[in-house]
Write a structure and sequence with these properties.
Helices cover 27% and strands 30% of the residues. By secondary structure, it is α/β, with parallel strands linked by helices. The structure holds S-adenosylmethionine (SAM). S-adenosylmethionine binds next to strand 10.
């Protein structure tokens, strides 16, 4: 019987959208110091147990780069001799990023962490051949799984797969380049997610800017008239605008006589436009994540937000912070994507007839609160991360966090809007946004 012993090593090809997590090994590592590699480590077994490879991998990934992963599939294996001559059996798994901030947790093991596409990795002169091969295989597997996921979507939405191709009903992704064209949705986690704030991604920002500069867009024709109709008198009042974007609402509040306006946004690019196009002596723009507004010291008469709350994970905390920042009888007025819009985990969102007219919206996953990854524009791969909460959860959170609800509006286009954009008739099937006005109790 052979007495040979092997080191068993596991590695994770981790994907987040179409990007792969690659580390630069620390110079202090015994094996291959300073090289680009996948995350992983030796399997050390102290007692009999199941899933040792998967468990080791999840632990190593967390300990090295601070992220949680799902081990989704076996990828490849190889044997090689380590620098000290010992034989290593290396097993690579396909893993899906689940959560956590990517960082070098242990500088002795990992010097740098990067997210890179398979294409970038293939073209990276510093990437070793075995890494390129692993990523190429992993990308192939990811794309194959994505194809399977798309095929399985109709079943999940209760539609037969023949609905895609036969009869006069054709299910397609939405295609109007508009905010109301919300979005081709794929299985959670199977899509590209921009690492950081998507509004600071150059390509996304450019597309978004074009959309908003269109003369007749959803915001201008439908959402803005409805939310502005609920504004209280602002003469001499102080206003906080959360997710202020270009600052067009902030300037409007200043023009309505507000005594002071603070606009906060997480995006540097959006604030760049705000400062350039909508500056005013009474407006202060701050770059800040709205989940951190608890550190603001000023008080406000109105906390306003237009189409940004669905980007926030912890709605309860946001409401608590807002309540603290409001003066007595202060008002919270916000719009966000309608829960019907945020609900589906996978698309296509609309069922269309043979002429491409929308017949009905494909609502699914409505009662499943949580994260969603969705394409913002049908013709690009940019994916936004947002949070779905059913209507009852939104309303009950507002009430339980110490507010009276004054108004709930599901805005639809008026005559003028329909004249300019007849395609907005779809809003009568399913409205894109919801608007809520509440008063501090
Ligand atoms: C759809 S845009 C709306 C912008 C603006 N309210 C308007 O109506 O024109 C959403 C905005 O929310 C901002 N945003 C997203 N998540 C945020 C967060 N956690 N904190 C602050 N701003 C955020 C984005 O950067 C973006 O400017």
């Amino acid at each position: 019987m052979s007495t040979k012993r092997y080191i068993v090593n596991v590695e994770a090809a981790i994907y987040r959208g179409d990007q792969w997590l690659i580390v630069k090994r620390s110079q202090q590592e015994e094996h291959a110091p300073g090289t680009l590699a996948l995350v992983g480590g030796k399997v050390e077994i102290e007692s009999a147990k199941d899933d040792v490879l998967e468990e080791t991998l999840r632990r190593e990934v967390m300990e090295e780069v601070g992220v949680e992963v799902d081990v989704v599939d076996y990828l490849e294996s190889k044997a090689f001799a380590a620098d000290d001559g010992r034989i290593v059996v290396d097993i690579v798994f396909l893993c899906r990023y689940k959560g956590g901030e990517t960082r070098c947790v242990d500088k002795h093991e990992v010097a740098e962490v990067h997210w890179a596409t398979a294409r970038d990795t293939a073209g990276n002169l510093k990437a070793p051949g075995y890494l390129k091969q692993a990523i190429a295989r992993a990308e192939e597997k990811r794309l194959a799984r994505m194809g399977d996921a798309i095929q399985s979507c109709p079943k999940e939405t209760g539609l037969s797969s023949s609905s895609f191709t036969s009869g006069n009903i054709v299910i397609k992704e939405t295609s109007i380049d508009d905010l109301s064209n919300v979005m081709k949705l794929w299985n959670d986690g199977e899509v590209m997610k921009f690492a950081g704030n998507i509004f600071d991604n150059d390509a996304f920002f450019e597309k978004y800017s074009k959309l908003r500069k269109r003369e007749h867009n959803y915001n201008g024709l439908v959402e803005q008239p409805a939310i502005k109709a609920l504004l209280p008198g602002l003469q001499g009042k102080t206003v906080l605008d959360l997710g202020c974007g270009y600052g067009s609402n902030c300037i409007d509040f200043a023009n309505r006589g507000a005594a002071g306006v603070v606009g906060i946004d997480i995006s540097n690019k959006m604030l760049g436009v705000a400062r350039e196009e909508n500056s005013h002596e009474l407006i202060e723009y701050k770059q800040m994540d709205m989940s951190k507004i608890g550190c603001l010291t000023q008080k406000f008469d109105l906390v306003f937000s237009s189409l940004a709350f669905h980007y926030v994970n912890d709605f309860g905390k946001l409401l608590r912070d807002i309540r603290c920042l409001l003066n007595e009888n202060g008002i919270l007025l916000f719009s966000q994507e309608h829960p019907y819009t945020t609900a589906p985990k996978c698309g296509p969102s609309w069922t269309k007839d043979a002429q491409g007219r929308k017949i009905h919206y494909n609502l699914s996953d409505y009662m499943c609160s949580g994260i969603r990854h969705a394409k913002f524009f049908a013709d690009s791969d940019d994916v936004v991360e947002k949070y779905h909460r059913p209507f009852s959860e939104i309303v009950n959170s507002i009430i339980s966090h110490g507010f009276f609800i004054n108004n709930v509006v599901e805005p639809v286009p008026g005559e003028y809007a329909l004249e300019k954009r007849p395609d907005y008739y779809d809003e009568f099937h399913k409205t894109t946004s919801i608007i809520i006005k509440a008063t501090k109790a």
